[in-house]
Amino acid sequence: MAKTALITGITGQDGYYLSHFLLERGYRVVGLVSPQRQPNLAKLGSLANLVEIYTVDLRDPQALLTAVEQLLPQEIYNLAAPSFVPDSWKDPLGTLDLITGTATRLLDAVRQVGLSTRFYQASSSEMFGDVDCSPQDEETPFRPKNPYAAAKMHAHWTMVHHRQRYGLFACSGILYNHESPLRAPQFVTRKISLAAASIKLGLAKTLEMGNLDAKRDWGFAGDYVEAMWRMLQVDEPEEYVIGTGYLHSVRELVATAFECAGLEWTKYVVINTELLRADEHFQLVANPTKAKTKLGWQPQVSFKQLIEKMVQTDLELLQNGKIAPVASLINHS
Ligand code: NAP
Predict the structure, then answer these.
(1) Are 26 and 152 in the same domain?
(2) Distance CA 157, CA 208 (A)
(3) Which of 99, 140, 149, 178 has the most crowded CB, counting CB atoms within 10 A?
(4) What is the pLDDT of residues 142-153, one digit of tens each?
(5) What is the distance between the alpha carbons of residues 275 and 271, in angstroms, rounded to a whole number?
(6) Is the pTM for the entire model greater than 0.90?
(7) Which residues line the pocket of ligand 1, CB cutoff 6 A?
(8) Where among 175, 205, 235 does a domain terminate?
(9) Phi/psi class of residue 129: alpha, beta or left (left: φ > 0; alpha: ψ in -120 to 50)?
(10) Active-site annotation holds for 246
């Protein structure tokens, strides 16, 4: 019989790639979607015909318990979160409730139903925050710097506590930045890929950026959802740091994206000092050795291939009038 996987956050980037990954392996995939988020189901596109949607308020513990009782999942992937970090300053409490509350309510539902469901929590490298060493691994202490990271850390520990106290198969992936053509346009990778494509097509003239020397560990979302799944297939539930282990600067990102569009970036990029942020002394970069050793996981898509994918898709989307050009987007560096 097909395994059932429940996914919160199915309409997001990772939800999309994870759903496809699981469907290819014969899973029945069910998205848990809050009633007030129903309009965003349009983001699923053709995936909507392949997955089931169960409408449930993620803030309602009783409704989540009923969902777990009715759907009897073998696996739960808790991905729902307001994932754009700056937004968490506008609504710290709402961020905490969605991220930590949903994890707690789902874990509690599994415990009450008494199932052997395997639970994945979407943790984040943001939990490491103000790091004093690079690269980071599973032993690196958490020093979150924003409400999003604090909420993720709380959810992470709640998951650990449920595992320790109740023996649940609960684990988390501490994921570094991962991107794709589905990344929301507020994020710097997509802002840049859209800008390169917009300028190439004559729909924009310049791209405003902040600190080009900032560095990140960027990978491809399709690779990272495989790591999530692998974590639930091993014998013991544990935490895993998931990233490429390589840093790239925003300057490299811009240069690569514009090169993919056949443009010389220095002619189009304008530095806006209002977008400048202080340089970090230590960088957020993964040491994914544990995932490589214990899960046999490693990223397949290189930095250059990722950026090429994004720029190519944005060129096609803009040419087909399926997305607004970069000029209409908010600037974030
Ligand atoms: P995403 O594209 O922003 O997707 C977020 C998902 O959460 C969407 O389905 C969204 O639904 C849902 N969501 C947001 N606010 C909600 C609310 N108030 N109530 C109910 N659902 C809500 O994020 P992603 O990149 O797929 O990331 C998946 C998970 O991994 C998130 O938990 C994120 O924090 C975490 N993570 C991501 C990265 C990364 O680099 N991508 C790194 C580390 C951890 P709507 O479509 O309705 O908005």
Answers:
(1) yes
(2) 39
(3) 99
(4) 999 999 999 999
(5) 8
(6) yes
(7) 9-15, 34, 37, 40, 43, 58, 79-83, 98, 122, 124, 175, 177-178, 184
(8) 175
(9) left
(10) no
